[in-house]
């Protein structure tokens, strides 16, 4: 019975995870960039999977620009330094613009919007917006990690000779630092993915490199969306 309940709990976590539209989108993203890595830009089954999955993902992102638009107009904590506020709002604005323009790209590729040249131009602009948002995210995470590091050092001094790992506040800050470090890696790698999609350095950032980096950031996104045990138990 205990093993059955454990299986039910694990399946419950999986259901909770897959119920998230964002999680399904990131799984499809992993398939998309994995296929790009395998195809290396050459015609074939892998490239067909890459293109079809890319188009399918755009449906998941319909009206998603509203999320970052809401973040753009939402207040930030008063203690946040002005440069980080500016970078954070710039990230929201750029990402919201990318997601909005991406809907026009979807209309073009699905045949609803007939001006293909205009749709492709909008697609290029949207990718530049995404690259800009990734740059802003990278800088925000660096700044926030610096603030966290200073806060943790100050807390260690206050704790003096006591075990810092037994302190709940220190453990919370450490967990937050780990989460932001992972977000920093993801944002930095996404810049390379954007460079590859825009073909700004085609000799260095090949379709295979783009696919590899995109696959890694997709796995990171999937990990970040994992539900925690306590949350799963309460649902």
From TrEMBL:
Keyword Ribonucleoprotein: no
Domain of life the protein comes from: Eukaryota
Membrane-topology annotation of the record: Multi-pass membrane protein
Primary localization class, coarse: membrane
Pfam family name, one: PEX11
Location within or outside the cell: Peroxisome membrane
Keyword entries, A-Z: Membrane, Peroxisome, Peroxisome biogenesis
Assembly with partners or alone: Homooligomer. Interacts with ARC5 and FIS1B on peroxisomes.
Function recorded in the entry: Involved in peroxisomal proliferation. Promotes peroxisomal duplication, aggregation or elongation without fission.
Sequence similarity: Belongs to the peroxin-11 family.
Protein name as it appears in the record: Peroxisomal membrane protein 11C
Source organism: Hevea brasiliensis (Para rubber tree)
